[in-house]
Amino acid sequence: MKRFIVDHSFWELFPEAKLGVLLLKNYNGLGESSPEIKALLEESHKLAEEHIDDRNFSDSDVVQTYRKAYQKFKTKKGVRSSIEALLKRVANGQKIPSIDPLVDIYNAASLRFGLPVGAEDSDRFVGDLQLTITDGDDEFFLIGDDKNSPTLPNELCYKDGSGAVCRCLNWRDGERTMIQPHTKNAFVVIEMLNPADADRMQEALTFMEGQAKLQLRAETEIHILDKHFSSIML
Fold first, then answer.
1. What is the pLDDT of residues 35-63, one digit of tens each?
2. Widest CA span of the chain, in angstroms?
3. What backbone torsions phi and psi does residue 152 show, to the nearest 5 degrees?
4. Comparing C-alpha atoms, which of 175, 53, 177, 33 is closest to residue 106?
5. Rounded to 10 degrees, what is the CA torsion of 2, 4, 5, 6?
6. Are 157 and 151 in contact (CB under 8 A)?
7. Is the C-alpha dihedral spanning 182, 180, 209, 169 positive or negative?
């Protein structure tokens, strides 16, 4: 059976971090998002303003937490966490579009609670999934791109037996394991790097679990990983 393993190289960088994982089994993601899911995403734009500094976007606690984190490992120039990208769009008056029922639910959670959230089709993993500092050159195809964009040496990424799954923590997903309409089993992860955000992470997990059960008829499991409990069965 496949596992998710958080390597010691992650905990060396972020010893106080916690990873919140929501596993979805046998869920129904066919079709476009329901009006209820779209309404959740819409109202999340207003709630996201709590995590934005009106005077200087870069000064917000959320933005600073993840910018400082990204200085601890190798990245491509200009790479930012997914939560910063979402908040930047909201700060600029842009709407996050509806994409897919599960994607909309986790984007709503990310906006509401100011945390990076990502999801993958767990049936597409080849062997175990790891979060680790990599030696580099792991195969990776961005969504919609047919050109290989391999990982860099000393980059922190999610990877399996076939290459990178998500690069630079939760920066960019790959085509191979992306959430699709036919996805039935999903791995959803929150990267909480600031211990002060522990309550928000728990609230985000509870929010997503509730919506996944209600809207997607999913069977769910929640796990919280730390340096003392660093792997789970998928």
1. 999 999 999 999 999 999 989 999 999 99
2. 49
3. -95, 155
4. 33
5. 170
6. yes
7. positive
